[in-house]
């Protein structure tokens, strides 16, 4: 039986924001982290800066992820206001926030930001690049270069990520072999759900396939491409 080395770690915070398709004033969140968020988390731990496009591309091409969602958390919708210059003045390409606030007349923009409260999941990562092997990624999560957060900077993790390298024949075996802390296990709601990317040996069938738009193409230009995500709703 062929065994692969998986990097498995836990993600928990009182508030998490995993992004989604932002339209107009709404800043939604999915119930579990997407590919862009997980790559960003690893990049922060490794100390990669946004302008290091080649390093980000290498990490992106190396890693594939699977997720075991114990609790999607309760939804929290936060109301925001921000002062902005009039629309016509925006065309002058004000360089800084200070420049915007110096404008004599400011308008108000409203937005709504969604968060997940007490969400808990496990992440399993596979790497095909020796430069970003699972042992190195595990060490980076233990001693991250940059602060880690779960989607937004206002959402730092509230429990250690406790990364562990697990040899397993498939994704589900790796995720099910990891033991989360008892205090976090109490957060589980219902049967855990599983999510994964194309091309992974999962050890389970998928109940459905969902489109996601979170494959990063450029961190500097903030460009993303679509991909498919596979979902198993749990059970045997």
Class derived from helix and strand content? alpha+beta
Separate helix tally: 7
Global outline: globular
The first-to-last residue Cα distance is 21 Å
Tell me about the largest β-sheet.
9 strands, mixed
The CATH architecture can be named as 2-Layer Sandwich
**For this structure, what is the CATH class?**
Alpha Beta
**Total strand count, please?**
9
- Over all CA atoms, what is the radius of gyration? 19 Å
Organism: Thiolapillus brandeum
InterPro entries: CRISPR-assoc_prot_Cas5, CRISPR-assoc_prot_Cas5_N, CRISPR-assoc_prot_CasD
Keywords: Antiviral defense
GO molecular function, one term: RNA binding
Structure description:
This protein has 236 residues and is α+β, with helices and mostly antiparallel strands. It has one domain (4-21, 31-72, 119-232): Alpha-Beta Plaits (2-Layer Sandwich), CATH 3.30.70. The protein has seven helices and nine strands, in the order ββααββααβαβααβββ. Strands 1, 2, 3, 4, 5, 6, 7, 8 and 9 form a nine-stranded mixed sheet that branches. It is globular and about 70 Å long. Pfam families: Cas_Cas5d (PF09704). InterPro entries: CRISPR-assoc_prot_Cas5 (IPR021124), CRISPR-assoc_prot_Cas5_N (IPR013422), CRISPR-assoc_prot_CasD (IPR010147). It comes from Thiolapillus brandeum. This is CRISPR-associated Cas5e family protein.
Quick tags:
236 residues; alpha+beta; Alpha-Beta Plaits; 9-stranded mixed sheet; 7 helices; 22% helix; globular; CRISPR-associated Cas5e family protein; CRISPR-assoc_prot_Cas5; CRISPR-assoc_prot_Cas5_N; antiviral defense
